[in-house]
Design a protein that fits this description.
Number of helices: 2
Structural class: alpha+beta
CATH architecture: 2-Layer Sandwich
CATH topology: Mth169, Chain: A
CATH class: Alpha Beta
Strand order of the largest sheet: 2-1-3
Largest sheet: 3 strands, antiparallel
């Protein structure tokens, strides 16, 4: 089973990289961009075949290591 974990900054947390991207897009002529939030995507291949167990395991990974839960949110997709 493959898990995809999407980690983004929580609403209200400043995103300097997102702001730099927004500024660069404006410099390239993309004038309609009013805001950018950036994050990361992590793919994990799991031996587990039970979706519920896999989700629980990945959620533990997110809380323990993959996301700084003070300032970041995460979402898990399994397939």
């Amino acid at each position: 089973m493959r898990a995809r974990v999407y980690v983004t900054l929580k609403t209200g947390v400043l995103d300097p990289q997102g702001e730099a991207i927004r500024h660069a897009l404006g410099a390239l002529g993309f004038s309609g961009v009013e805001g950018v939030r950036q994050g990361k995507m992590i793919e994990i291949d799991l031996a587990e075949t039970d979706e519920g167990k896999a989700r629980a395991e990945v959620e533990k990974m997110c809380d323990a290591l993959l996301a700084n839960t003070v300032i970041e949110s995460w979402k898990v997709e399994l397939d």
